[in-house]
Amino acid sequence: MEFLTVLVLVLAFSNSLGPTTTGEAHANHPFNYVVVIVMENQGLGDISNNPSAPFMNQLAASYSLATNYTAINHPSLPNYLSLISGQDFASWSKADCNPAPGCSAGNASNIVDSLENRGLSWKAYMEDYTGGGCTDRGDSYYGGQHNPFVYYKDINDSAARCANIVNANPGTSGYLALPTLLLSDLNSVTTSSNYMWLTPNICDDGHTLCNPLNNTVSQSNQYMSLLIPKILSSTLFTTQRAALLIVWDESSSKSNNKVTAIWAGPTAKLAHTSLAEYSHYSAVRTIETAWNLPTLTAYDSSTNPMTEFFNP
């Protein structure tokens, strides 16, 4: 049923291009809305052709897959930070520290600055984030180092910005507690933001072994088989120019940090595979290019955007 669901969605949505949105997103851009989902600790080889990941492999085969996409560092935190700022936080590569005066991105510019300066909206959804806002408080399934937004001073210092960091699954918790708030927003264009980030909890993203499967790849596969069809069949994805990026933060190996990156949605090319070199900086550059945003650092400005993955 997982395979059939994806194939039906591909056929139904491949030509669904909706009207423009607010701010600087326009009909001639690759997308007016984007959802970014970050998964955990699996390299490209851990997912590709793995019998424990049938849905993920079918999704990659149906839409667009980057097979030469690398993470930036080990462990998780520098990769999350780079995905929203184009920064290189190599000095943090040995520690997944919690946000604190000694563990902060400080005044570094980030994607939120660029979006708001251009009049584009954003929201970050964190599963099992019971505190919400910039509290960095969640239950035992919340991965604090997987919430990059709270590390930036100009986000933490703004009540309005903190209000855009929300608990994705209020009232539920743990494995397969789907992000109901994100899904609700996706089914009402008026509540959808141009830029939407989702951090699954540590069971759903494959970070931690969880019952009943106790297999991180199988856990992620089952979670995505339930969630992704709901995203692709939402009001936003069936009526607007929306894109979905699914990417892993880092590989399971420190010697090869190549990870899986999948673009899906109505504007993504079907059955497209690329050998071109990309990285987390490329993900940032793709959004900047799509919406005419300025680059943030020398890293994102010197990399190529992933525009080949979208229909003209």
SSE blueprint:
Elements: H1 2-13, E1 33-39, H2 44-47, H3 54-62, E2 64-70, H4 76-85, H5 111-117, E3 122-126, H6 153-156, H7 159-162, E4 165-167, H8 180-186, E5 195-199, H9 216-232, H10 235-239, E6 242-248, E7 258-264, E8 272-274, E9 278-279, H11 280-290, H12 298-301
Helix pairs in contact: 1-3, 4-11
Total count of strands? 9
Look at the helices and sheets and give the structural class: alpha/beta
Provide the domain count.
1
Mean pLDDT: 92
Q: Per CATH, what is the topology?
A: Alkaline Phosphatase, subunit A
Describe this structure in words.
This protein has 312 residues and is α/β, with parallel strands linked by helices. The protein has a single domain (55-253, 269-309), classed as Alkaline Phosphatase, subunit A, CATH 3.40.720. Helix content is 30%, strand content 15%. Strands 1, 2, 3, 4, 5, 6, 7, 8 and 9 form a 9-stranded mixed beta sheet that branches. Helix 1 packs parallel to helix 3 and helix 4 (76-85) runs parallel beside helix 11. The radius of gyration is 18 Å and the shape is globular. The model is unreliable at 1-25 (pLDDT under 50).
